[in-house]
Amino acid sequence: MARARAEMEFDRPSLLGSLFGQFDQNLITIENRLGVYVAARGNRVVVEGEPQAIARARDALLALYHRLEQGHAIDSGDVEAAIAMSGEPMLDGLEMAGGQPVAIRTRRKTIFARNAAQARYIEGLGRSDIIFALGPAGTGKTYLAVAQAVSQLISGSVDRLILSRPAVEAGERLGFLPGDMREKVDPYLRPLYDALYDMLPSEQVERRIASGEIEIAPLAFMRGRTLANAFVILDEAQNTTPLQMKMFLTRFGEGSRMVICGDPRQVDLPDHTTSGLADAVARLAGVPGIAISAFGPGDVVRHPIVGRIVEAYEGGDA
């Protein structure tokens, strides 16, 4: 295919240092990932290569530039995300490149979609009553769900945020752990706390937990309740039984939103025990108001080596 050439001009030179990166590292990353040549000349950028690759480089640079215009910093992960998103310029009517990026705004930070799967998921989080998020660790399933929950709590569209996990995993049972009930369950719920502290100032997290606006509890504590006007998240859902999953789903109340996150390939239940996550997805696929958002190894947004590890395990019997 014949090589082409395109030129871009940016009207805020003060942002270009951040856009290009230290020693033009961001431009080098775009060159290496897309097979193009990128040269910065003052407030202009020249891109040479195959037409499709040039278009993707242009979209990635524009997406990063728009982030800087909005006052957000960018890092190497954002550059990789912009490149990945440039491969899907339009997705279900959502403008994804060269326009406003798909994002969730919380009190402490704005979280941007880092790939097409995350963009679909964010769109579903804002629309569906119940959404199942399936896929390996590192794809942002729970993190984005907590971000959406915090965003809706701040806006007042829900009154409470409830985060839950099964409290028995990998063969460990609560009765054998030291301490009172909170000390027993806190290690299982720590990832949910970590996500919360990323979205809200620590004093707000503590105040809202004390007031009951935010509740973090093991799955067993959901029994017998009706959860109205709440954003409810169940994490590690692959470690529920079908009865536990049914119990959780039937807690759904008026004005609520539910997100069920899990990795169907990482079940820690005893042998020959059916996972409630797999059972629910099979029963509820296609039911109005219920969405399923699937992630694969290629959607891992942690360090690139994590994606390669997941791919290696997905290809085997694990």
Fold and architecture overview:
This protein is of the alpha/beta class. It is 40% helix and 19% strand. The chain contains eleven helices and 13 strands. A six-stranded parallel β-sheet has the order 10-9-11-12-8-13, sandwiched between helices. Strands 1-3-2 form a three-stranded antiparallel β-sheet. The longest helix is centred in the N-terminal third of the chain and has 19 residues, at 51-69. It is elongated, with a radius of gyration of 22 Å. The two termini are 42 Å apart. Residues 90-99 have low confidence and may be disordered.
Tags for this model:
alpha/beta, 11 helices, elongated, 318 residues, three-stranded antiparallel sheet, 19% strand, single chain, six-stranded parallel sheet
